[in-house]
Amino acid sequence: MVLQQTLRWLVIGSIFALTIIPFIIAQSLYFPFITGKNFTFRILVEVGAAGWLALALIYPAYRPRRSWILGAFAVFVAIVALADAFGAYPFKSFWSNYERMDGFVTLAHLFVYFALATSMLTSEKLWRAFWNVSIIMSLAIAFYSFLQLFGVASLNAGFSSVERLDATFGNPIYLAVYMLFHIFIAALLWIGYWRESKPGKRWLLSSFYGAVISIDSLVLLLTGTRGTMIGLVGGIFVAATLIALFERDRSIKKWATGIVVGTLVLAGGFYFLRDSAFVHSIGFLNRLATISLTDATTKSRFMNWGMAWEGVKERPILGWGQENYAVVFDKYYNPGMYNAEPWFDRVHNIVFDWLIAAGFLGLIAYFSIFAAALYALWRAVLQGAHIEEKAPNVRRKEADVSAFSVMEASILTGLLAGYMIHNMTVFDNIVSYILFASVVVYIAWRESAFRATPVLWSRSLPQSAIAFVAGGAALVVWGVASYVNGAALAQNRLLIQAITPQEAGLEKNLEYMKGAIAENSVGTQEAREQLVQIASKVASLSEVNIAVKQDFYDTAVAQIQQQGEASPLDARAPLFLGVVHSAYGNHEAAAKAFAHALELSPKKQGILYEIARNANQRGDVVGALRALKQAFELETSNIQARILYAAALISVGNDAEADTLLAPIIETGEAADPRIAAAYVAKKRYDKIVLIWEAYVKAQPNDPQGYFTLAGAYYGSGDRAKAISSLETAAKLFPESAPQVAAFIEQIRDGTLKVE
């Protein structure tokens, strides 16, 4: 009995401990905001699984009950497992990488968490305790967010605006969805306690949960995450509409109707005031107001979805396996994405993400979890109403005839709707996974407990064997945990050491890197790519001896070739291979690697730029021009491609075609690029530089460098007076540049200024 209770509280404790995961930042690990949280989640679930397995094999009370939600989740996991096994890169589908720590390993842990939570949290008291602990944690996270807002705590790299708080998540999007869940959970608890409390105590409930909702909502807004803000409003609208339609209490129906109308009025008012100074003066409102079909982020989302659809059409049934969108992104790359980051591993849309990961079967299975949850919520409510209609004169509590009241079902439906809206433009992380799983577990437990559905299996081991069973379960889970986490943690630490300067020199860095790759775990691809980047830098260091450089080169080439063999459809490996070959002057080998990368991603301008650079290094001017022309013609609005192609044309004396390319962007100032200036300087065509930079200083009068470049062009063309005039203008507009101006003017007058 003592061992039974010890195991029970061990499992429950591991479940409650999940609420601390948002606070974890593992500074000693690679991707500290991601890896620390994920390793902690996995270890806690594994600890809980050991205790739960021992209890479930002996005591029926600790077994999950049958439910449509559990069945839907199990089918989903099975389909994803098949998709991963037959996907483009099964190893990565299973393990993921340190940047995401997603993949089948995480999904399997979530399913185990579902099973043990629905088996162990078997009373409303326990569930409310769990939710209340989580809510208190959200308040602590909110407090830390406010410290960021007021400058007491620093924002994390990449998000320097106090209008985009990220707390301990490292990403405002992750903080936003965390708050979204807790806003609705607080509302759910508020309603539950309100109905059970005496009128005199209700003001305390209103004060506490009202404060939680207000504080968490404010933090959500200050993340500036537009999709989650819309999700919050949409979730509130859905919940209020359902309450207005189905709630029997007239006073509550009036309140809900008021919220529906108020939401519509606020949304309409915001739309009409979206261009006002007031809206643009408030950071999060300004971000909402900038949503449009022409917005850069919106355009990139649509292009991403279009590329994803091409991938779906190629593999519609089971998709490409988890973590393989990068392959689709390369193969169907839209050149219009030239201004976005060059590598996407997520579609930023939950529908397309699961279509890519597991095809239509996976998407249907994923949505079946939502469908099963909604069915559990509303079947209970509708059945309760049906019973009331059959026995209208029998007074009974709503809880006597239904697992969920109308208000509870509406709030949970609103939460699921808000979460889905949020995921239409972003993707999940481990904390949102945990919260989503917790919500559907709660719905499954409450509905199955209310209906007293049978447990999954009835046969039991004798109670006298509990010690042996517990020991056996612990050994099994320890073995699994060691396999899942041991090598991954060791590799992570070795990778950190490999990219950190070592007193023993670069040889030690390479030793650590070789050790990290040898672990063959979660971060193998990341380690290989880091090796290539380090090796490429080492190539240019004159103080490093030839033997060390050769070791870096040989190791980097061998490892990135192995990566290409492991993931033959991914353009990153041959591109990285070409980069390291180029760094060490092996331009012929680099050319072959870049050509292979282009075969895998024929429309990516970045690869064509590398091909052009490589062609120039090999003296193949025609090949360089051909590659740059191809890059430009893929997307003529790409200023970078236009500039590079024009500069190449100038360098071979084709001024006429270069003029045609530059003409549309001279007046806007976009033609004033250092590469254009360098090409014209090499040809002594200072008159061309004058023409371009005269337009630039008109278009961009607040850039002091423009006046200096223009002065140099005037000087090069022999017009010293205009050169001095341009510099004097710079001195007037930018007094801090006066000393530099004086020095340049002196050089102009004595004829010693060098124009390069």
From TrEMBL:
Q: Where are the TPR repeats?
A: 571-604, 704-737
Is Transferase one of the keywords?
Answer: no
Q: What subcellular compartments does it reside in?
A: Membrane
TM stretches of this protein? 7-33, 39-62, 69-91, 103-122, 129-153, 173-191, 203-222, 228-246, 255-273, 354-378, 399-421, 427-445, 465-484
Every copy of the O-antigen ligase-related domain together lies at 215-367
What InterPro entries does the database record attribute to this sequence?
A: O-antigen_ligase-rel_domated, TPR-like_helical_dom_sf, TPR_rpt, WaaL-like
Q: How does it sit in the membrane?
A: Multi-pass membrane protein
Principal localization? membrane
Pfam families for the chain: TPR_19, TPR_8, Wzy_C
Alphabetic keyword roster: Membrane, TPR repeat, Transmembrane, Transmembrane helix
Which first-to-last residue range defines the signal peptide? Answer: none
What are the annotated GO cellular component locations?
membrane
Q: Please give the Gene3D superfamilies that the UniProt record associates with this protein.
A: Tetratricopeptide repeat domain
- The name under which this protein is listed is O-antigen ligase-related domain-containing protein
Q: Which organism is it from?
A: Candidatus Kaiserbacteria bacterium RIFCSPHIGHO2_01_FULL_54_36
Q: What is the lineage of its organism?
A: Bacteria, Candidatus Kaiseribacteriota
